[in-house]
């Protein structure tokens, strides 16, 4: 085979995925030198030739043509860069390496533990007297002194804007050192977390897909002491449980991806990382969706409902959820609107169902339930929709030998509570703005909730009487 043939074989795209690109370029340079009988060149010249070849092949394989040399492209900067396809292995590797280096550089710009300790030392050294209630304060002049000694990494924190944000009309014109230090710590934590999440952002567009977030949480589990009680066999169910909360609340339109900024802005990561506290009380854990007791509770309920042990829930099995008083009409609509497999619900779909019913005051939960109640898919609830679901409540009342309350009374009360813009239609926004959306939807889907609402005055009186009796007993 001729030397030219070897070079063509070296530049073949088919070899990119199986050979180290750097070694290939070096070999190509050596072959060029040997073919012309030139003396061995220095390392610097090899590097320069290697860079030239890389640039040539990169632009050639990227598919750039002469249109990039026209006048228009010199004037208008390129603002869209298409993501490399699956078969463009070189471009993918270059993109991944560039992102990794960028994130490493950003990580090095953050304050480390020693630098934070040094910052606290400087704040303590330059605090501005007098000390009030054991809380050290600092005025703007001393604030700037700390800035000059703290180093370049701290410059972004020592601005007039930050000082003004933390200023609370203190008579001596000072801010709390502790509040400022906590502000710095929070900012550093947010940047660290953003970099950590970005490592799982495969596309580099600022989003995490479901599989990306699953990988992040799976690798986070060993760092959370309060999750040590979980068996490894339960990890996949725990990850599914945790990820569903993020996607239920942060991706209500079901796009399959969440902005990293939205993850940082919500409190879910705080709740998750709270599990690092080894002294976290049992009560705090039970109220935290991400805790081991909470995850085991939800999964245990799912297993208890699954009577035939096939790993899925039928409508009859789901009817036993909670107090077992959800109406058949509502359950029918759940199975019509939600993703099912051969008419049965899997664990992921069940988690959305639980999150909606346990957080009915939240807009995302109201949206989930509204979609189910919107039988005609018109984007609003009218008299027909309300009556369609309320008839099931009336039927349940008859089964329990209770006298059904007339629909007209309930309908009027619902419209009085919501006060919609259109007196004949109730939209999702009407429910959210009224602050009564959870009450309205609850009395239409669950007999127990309807009974609680109808007897709310008696329940309050009974609770007050019980409190009074307890106070008298103590006396």
UniProtKB/TrEMBL annotation:
Q: Where's it mainly located?
A: cytoplasm
Please give the superkingdom of this protein's source.
Eukaryota
Which GO molecular-function terms appear in the entry? metal ion binding
Q: Which UniProt keywords apply?
A: Calcium, Cytoplasm, Metal-binding, Nucleus, Repeat
Q: Which SUPFAM superfamilies match?
A: EF-hand
Q: Its GO biological process terms?
A: cortical cytoskeleton organization; microtubule cytoskeleton organization; regulation of dephosphorylation
Q: This chain belongs to which protein, by name?
A: Serine/threonine-protein phosphatase 2A regulatory subunit B'' subunit gamma
Q: Which InterPro entries match?
A: EF-hand-dom_pair (IPR011992), EF_Hand_1_Ca_BS (IPR018247), PPP2R3C (IPR039865)
List localization entries. Cytoplasm; Nucleus
Q: Carries keyword Cytoplasm?
A: yes
Q: Name one GO cellular component term.
A: nucleus
